[in-house]
Amino acid sequence: MKFKTAFTFGLGVIAAASAHAADLVIATVNNGHMIEMQKHTKDFEKANPGITLKWVTLEEGVLRQRVTTDIATKGGQFDVMTIGLYEAPI
């Protein structure tokens, strides 16, 4: 039940962040929870016409490096990034 609540909250955040966007690029780690979340893409897009979710799924170390570089250079490669407990305080 906790995952479902977190997932619903996550989709709400994405919907709020994408009020004017047509495509959202989401960087996420390659784990079971995030893979499960991706399975709901069609439902989200159906409920939010005009918004397309594009997932970039990477291994944890690669994701951490790419997200850190993207933020440091203000590259804007990703619109939404999932982070873990390690990154949250940073």
Describe the structure.
The chain is an alpha/beta fold. It is built from four helices and three strands; from the N terminus they run H-E-H-H-E-H-E. The chain starts with a helix and ends in a 9-residue tail after the last strand. The model has no long low-confidence stretch (mean pLDDT 82).
Gyration radius from CA atoms, angstroms: 13 Å
Say what the CATH topology is.
D-Maltodextrin-Binding Protein, domain 2
Which strand order spans the largest sheet, edge to edge or round the barrel?
2-1-3
- List the domain count as a whole number: 1
Identify the CATH class. Alpha Beta
* Low-confidence sequence ranges: none
Round the mean pLDDT to the nearest integer and report it. 82
At the fourth CATH level, what is the homologous superfamily?
Periplasmic binding protein-like II
Reported for the largest beta sheet, the result is:
3 strands, parallel
- So what's the overall shape? globular
Beta strand %: 15-25%
Portion in helices: 40-55%
CATH architecture: 3-Layer(aba) Sandwich
The count of DSSP E runs of length 2 or more, i.e. the number of strands, is 3
Return the string of H and E elements. HEHHEHE
**C-alpha end-to-end distance:** 28 Å
Helix count from the secondary structure assignment: 4
Counting helices, strands and paired strands, the structural category is alpha/beta
Secondary structure blueprint with pairings:
Blueprint: H1 2-17, E1 23-29, H2 32-38, H3 41-47, E2 52-58, H4 60-72, E3 80-81
Parallel strand pairs: 1-2, 1-3
